[in-house]
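Why do we care about 3D structure at all? Because function follows from shape, and shape follows, mostly, from sequence. That is the central idea of this module. The next example makes it concrete: a single protein chain, its amino acid sequence, and then its structure expressed as tokens.
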Amino acid sequence: MATERTRENSWVSLDTPTIKKSNVWTHFGFPVYDNESKKFIDKQKTKTIQANLPSFSKYSNSSSRAADINRAVAGFIVSDMRPLGIVDNLEFKVLLQKLDPRYVLPCRRHFADKIIPEMYSEKKREIGEKLQKAQSIALTTDSWTSRACQSYMTVTVHFVADDWTIKNFVLSTKMLAVSHTGENLGNALIEVMGEWSLLRYKSDSSTVAITSDNASNMDIAARVGGFEPHIKCFAHTLNLASQKALKTPSLAKLVSRIKRIVAFFHKSTTATAVLKAKQSLLNIPEHKLIIDVATRWNSSFEMITRFLEQQPAILSALTSNEVKRNVKDIVTLSDMDINDAEKAIDVLKPLKTATTIMCDQHFPTVSMIFPLRSQILDSMVEKAGDCKLIREVKEAIRSDLTPRYRDDTVENFLLMSTALDPRFRSLPHVDDSRRQEVYDLIENMALTFCEAIKVKVEKNDDVPPQAELPEMPQMLGTPALPQLPQLDDINDVEDKSDILPAKRSKGAMEDLFGDVFIVSATPGRSTSDLVHDEVERYRSESNIALNADPLQWWKSHLDKFPKLSIVAQAFLGIPGTSVPSERVFSCAGDIVTATRSCLDPELVDKLIFLKMNFRY
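And the structure:
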């Protein structure tokens, strides 16, 4: 009879005998067959419990499905900065059981000792492979203290990849159990370089640039580690200049009075409610008042700006009957005070705009240090009619910013970086002789790079691949830039050349020998002549739009400037700020919380590394 039936389609559960109470009966049943378009139940044969076991047994430790879920849970913990203890949370376990009843969630120790370290090793290997392909790199570094009163140093690496995009990675967040002397910091940086096999970038003919804050111990650290040039974070420099301006007597008094009013509204629920009602009545944006933080000058700027926006509502709230009886030691601002505050904001606004630009992370920023610095200094020139407060503010900013970046090595490097940015290649902020001197330095640098490549090409084939990279002045990647502010005196802009030309396919001979013999394509001309011609052609080009991407411009002009583009790739990858390292502080604050202050420093390093590099 069985041969007349098609294959079984399903099972019908047995009716549990009334005298049988065991749950095992739920795993038995009769097979159902199709028989001439009709279903046939064969009650002579029952389904065995073994047929059901795969649907109810738990995944083994070696199961690929369990491994995938383990990594997904670890990815959730890392990317969302969740505590490892979440795996002990009852509701989290219930959630996973609902999603897959066969999955068994490992304990937190399994994640901390096995899964996260494995993910760390894989990501480190992946990033290491990308770094080995980089022609030049640069570092940023900064230090911070955790809630457990442990000191950490973060190091990030940056470079312009072959596709002419800036790459940024966090390399290390190491606990420093020693004092933060320049020598100790320099040795710690060398240790990180060695751990990542980056010491090959440091040689007699090449260096690695580093960007840090303005602390004096970092000057010593850069010398001990042999990092050159050492770029002082421009955002930090602007902060120092702004802090001096905020401490001038007239402005400090005005800021203090504004802060006292703002603090009153922050502490009084009644005043806050009345303010909100006045905002609605006067048709003013219902924004909350901002109070400044001593270490962030931007917060003072934002506090004054928001106060001026809300000033009518604030005055109306302070004079209302509900609030007036609780107001003590608060003096409202006069019309003259309001006028001074508005003028102060106008003076400080270029610094705020520059800080915003420099804190981005996808476009070159080192090339903008000198143009922005020059623009800010020009705006700080005293004008007829400036009141006492404005004169004091301008003098404070001018006196603090003028001596910055005047070291010959750093100034030359920054000017070369600016010249290699096609937005600022005309160098409008320097005179003709200085402009010529800068381009002479670029020409010499291009010759040095070409010579380095030539030496490497002539080496034997049995040289290890790591040594085959050209030894160039190593420097690396940076922040991004929103819309650039309009720099009034920048030369005419030609908003074209941003479209990539069709890529020309190479022939077999060109593909094989092009990198070696391309220099000899023009008989009878020296490398020096070819480099000089490239520099002159580059100088004759028009500036591109201020909001254009300089790296994409270089990508589209590689064939036209094959030698000069190598220098541009090395220089434009260097960060103008240490913001990439400082961004780690915020991440670390969410990882090393008050309830997780006892995390092992090695685990902190791995969690921060995975979090910051997870998207890559």
